[in-house]
Amino acid sequence: MKVKSILVTQPKPETDKSPYHDLAKKYALKIDFRPFIHVEGISAKDFRKDRINIQEHTAVILTSRHAADHFFRMCAEMRITNAEELKYFCISESTAFYLQKYITFRKRKIFSGKQSMSDLIEVLKKHKKENFLLPCSDITKQDMADLLTAQGLQFNRATIYRTVCSDLSDLADVKYDMLVFFSPAGVTSLYKNFPDFVQNNTLIAAFGSQTCQAVTEAGLRLDIQAPVPEAPSMTMAIEQYIKKNK
Fold it and tell me: What residues are paired with 8 via a beta bridge?
């Protein structure tokens, strides 16, 4: 099937310096972006029900910008001023730099991994005496907590935001040759918005093993999978499919 239009179920990149922009230009594609899910903060009132004392922790693990935003939002709502000694462990350098939005870099102890939780674990192992707080969403993968437990790290999971299906009703009459998913929640959102969705000739691309599993468990045909050795990124996998079927 020839691909002319693609819907990526993520926010639109902030600049044109994106592999999707290059892909669209190279193959004359129409690529639109629309998040199928979004996050909503949990109120301080509901958070208190979990009886987690933020100030009892000596370090915070931040796995995304969402986690950082809602951690500092919760602190503000609860009128908590974090000690300068509090350590921040970020999943990547970009997430670490993002903290400048909330704290003064030179006065804080900030550590970062390369990009994955397994990378960050190597950093965390050097700080086993810390009492970690893991701000997360209601659908955070269990394997993240399992990695921390396996290393004997002391931590508490703090659910401070939830993942919610977005309203996609305006897309009811819009058709795309390909849908690109990045999380199981995105697949859930598809059927919540369009319970009678039938794939037919629509191509489905998915990133990550859990997303691919969600696609197949939903009874959909998985046409493009990433990452794979020959295509570590989603755009590379899509390009390879286009070349093969051109």
Answer: 33, 180
Residue 8 has pLDDT above 80, yes or no: yes
Q: Which amino acid is at 124?
A: L
Structural domain includes residue 20? no
Strand ranges for 53-210 from DSSP E: 59-62, 87-90, 109-112, 131-137, 154-165, 178-181, 203-207
Cα 186 to Cα 18, 152, 168, 214, 234: the distances in Å are: 21, 33, 11, 9, 15
Neighbours of 108 (CB within 10 A): 16
CATH number of the CATH domain containing 135: 3.40.50.10090
Give the C-alpha separation, 93 to 196, whole Å: 42
For residue 60, the one-letter residue type is V
Instruction: Answer for the pair 205, 226: CB distance below 8 angstroms, yes or no.
Output: yes
Structural domain that includes position 111: 40-163
115 in a domain, yes or no?
Answer: yes
Residue 59 lies in a domain: yes
Compute the distance between CA of residue 237 and CA of residue 215 in angstroms, rounded to an integer: 17
- pTM strictly above 0.85: no
The answer to whether 70 and 41 have CB atoms below 8 angstroms apart is yes
Report residue 72's pLDDT band, with 50, 70 and 90 as the boundaries.
Answer: very high
The total of structural domains in the chain comes to 1
Residue 6 domain-assigned (yes or no)? no
pLDDT digit string (tens) for 190-220? 999 999 999 999 999 999 888 999 999 999 9
Separation of CA 200 from chain center: 28
User: The tokens of 26 are what?
Assistant: 């190279």
